[in-house]
Amino acid sequence: MSKFLKFTLAAGFAISATAVFAGDFGLGRPALPEEIAAWDVKIMPDGRGLPEGSGDVWTGDEVFAENCAVCHGDFAEGVGNWPKLAGGWDTLDHEDPLKTVGSYWPYLSTVWDYVNRSMPFGNAQSLSNDEVYAITAYILYSNNLVDEDFTLSHENFAEVEMPNAGGFIVDDRAETEYAKWTGEPCMENCKDEVKITMRARVLDVTPDVEEAEAAEAEPVAVAVAEPEPAPEPEVAAVDPALIEAGEKVFKKCKACHQVGEGAKDRAGPQLNGVMGRAAGSVEGFKYSKALMARADEGLVWNEETISAFLANPRGYMKGTKMGFAGLKSEEDQAAIAAYLSSFAD
Amino acid sequence: MSETFKGKSTSRRGFLRGAAAAGAGALAAGAAKAATPDPLIVEPQPWAQGLGEGVDVTPYGLPIQFENDVVRRNVDWLTADTISSINFTPIHALDGTITPQGCAFERHHSGAIELAKDDYRLMINGLVDTPLVFTYADLERFPRENHVYFCECAANTGMEWAGAQLNGAQFTHGMIHNMEYTGVPLRTILEEAGVKTEGKWVYVEGADASSNGRSIPMEKALDDVLVAFKANGEALRKEHGYPVRLVVPGWEGNMWVKWLRRIEVTDAAVQSREETSKYTDTLEDGTSRKWTWEMDAKSVVTSPSPQAPITHGTGPLVISGLAWSGRGAITRVDVSKDGGKTWETARLAKPGERMALTRFYLDTTWDGTEMLLQSRAMDETGYVQPTKTQLREVRGLNSIYHNNCIQTWWVKPNGEAENVEVS
């Protein structure tokens, strides 16, 4: 079929049947079934695409505490600015509605799909199908939508009703807005008077760029300054260039780990003073069983152990929560060790 | 003088310093007479005597040091983490319409990933005759097109729903960029795989951990969507989806999937996280609009504005800004200096182009009195950009996305400007 004819036909069909005819460039190659299975993990709202499996609320409670609670809270209530997954029921018509899975999400398939493909943050695609069912069941439980003895599976998935399933309408701007705001606008005497009713400066939430830049500049200047006598011998011994290189490599770690002034635990523990410290010793952080077992054996983080861990996290410590593929380059490993050793407790 | 203006500051303090240094002479309108010869003219300057850098110094250039404040900025309190967050284009400091890639806003859901061309694969599957896998090199062998389009985050101006909040055009309107894209029409790729008649939607997702999947109706997919690999003539930047992103002209930026890895033809919308829990618009009665894809006509004065105050005193003043519409070309922009009582029509730098930024200018004379500056865009459908009051009458106060209201800057007699709301 000629190119011209093909386009004409396709354009004609686009409105009624949206039929498009096969192209003739012969580019690409057929996708293999295994490849499609690996990438096509989407779940349709009617549950199509769900794998076989199940998980109950109690298992979900445990898996959630281990993998999700650091950001979303033990009861899915959210930590700080991280998303709240539970609560907010009947707030959608209030000022500042609280949109959670329970109060807002119209389809349960969205929860399963998103947890399965994108969570936990910084360690996506690490959960088993049953764990995803269990987490989904726990989120439902946190929203008072199921009882504590509930088990979610591919078989009963479609029976779960989401409270806000009927709360959505398809974009109606064409009917409700466009006619209203069309036509020749007023050019003169459009209002009797104009008064300022609100000023941004009163709220004063705009970032102060000068201050922020000054604050950022300071620690950098310290890091590259001539080494000064310091109480921690490791700090003085480390090459400033290596520290700088390590700072760059550390970008790969930042999704889960903070270091420096005010560093807090996130998906991973804060790393101030990690070099020379016993493994598993950040108070309040929930380590994996695997890491705590090694800690009991007396594992201490130093350049050698941290490099070995980073080279192949799951190989070095089977069962670690750290969802990081690893740093192959020995230079990068040394740079990270140097960078981390520049932060004392 | 040169010292004072070297590091143009974006902050209020910086502005006040600049204004004071500009001094009384600048405030007198018309051509000021020099009392003493300007040393920059009468004395030989180092750059006119010595030598500059050679051609081997800068294989790939960045802006000169004096422009180092023209950068993307982040608002810390907005999100829990900078990895899943947004920053803002410095539109207050740019002119023309094309956004340089290096300062074009970024929005990631799992961070900007590094994906090499050699590791890139694009799959098309679902309701197609032949599911296919393409390499990057394959994509470069399809006939390609060039188009300039704006990409605006649906949340642009979202923080301003409840009231004037952020003091600067960069922060109120900077979730937008405008680039010339080179890419293959999505239609060509759909044709190559052969779409089955029951295929009504196209689900697109990225290679990053968030995948950011979105459903696009087939009609749009066959119309003007591009599978793009170049922007402004060069490879996409990492933060904009290198090596391949989707370009969905006129529609909300969240649909412009970056690191595009999979296109699936489906019989229904997938109802992904990004099209249900996010990017939906809750109205006053608690119901929410979904599938609000198009970005309505909008404009903003970029200068003068809070980060770009008037520092030259009275006399000739160029009021400048940007206008755009996701439903076609901008046909007209009006500017008001008195908060919307009277309007005058601005000059468009070029005739408006469909789904691309349009630059407007109002060449005027400032008498030093305060102004309540506004701009109002109209597009080829006849739509007129609404006021915030008009938007709130229909949608209430609880929306986040699609705030295309008329913006007001209060320009004071000293030239300083502030983000305000007016009656």
- Named CATH topology of the largest domain in chain B: Sulfite Oxidase, Chain A, domain 2
How many strand segments of chain B?
Answer: 24
CATH class of the largest domain in chain A: Mainly Alpha
What is the assigned CATH homologous superfamily of the largest domain in chain A? Cytochrome c-like domain
The fraction of residues in strands of chain B falls at 25-35%
Query: Describe the biggest sheet of chain A?
Result: 2 strands, antiparallel
The outline of chain B comes out as globular
In the CATH hierarchy, what is the architecture of the largest domain in chain B at level 2?
A: Alpha-Beta Complex
CATH-level-2 architecture of the largest domain in chain A: Orthogonal Bundle
Mean pLDDT of chain A: 84
* Shape, per Cα inertia axes of chain A: globular
Query: Mean pLDDT score of chain B, rounded?
Result: 93
Poorly predicted runs of chain B are 1-29
Q: Structural class from helices and strands of chain B?
A: alpha+beta
What is the fourth-level CATH superfamily of the largest domain in chain B?
Answer: Oxidoreductase, molybdopterin-binding domain
Total count of helical runs of at least 4 residues of chain A:
15
The whole-angstrom Rg of chain B is 24 Å
Unreliable parts of chain A: 1-19, 211-236
Q: How much helical structure, as a percent, in the residues of chain A?
A: 25-40%
Helix/strand class of chain A: mainly alpha
**How many domains would you count in the coordinates of chain A?**
3
Pfam family, one (chain B): Oxidored_molyb
GO molecular function (chain B): heme binding; molybdenum ion binding; molybdopterin cofactor binding; sulfite oxidase activity
Keywords (chain B): Metal-binding, Molybdenum, Oxidoreductase, Signal
InterPro entries (chain B): Ig_E-set, MoCF_OxRdtse_dimer, Mopterin_OxRdtase_euk, OxRdtase_Mopterin-bd_dom, OxRdtase_Mopterin-bd_sf, Sulfite_DH_SoxC, TAT_signal, TAT_signal_bac_arc
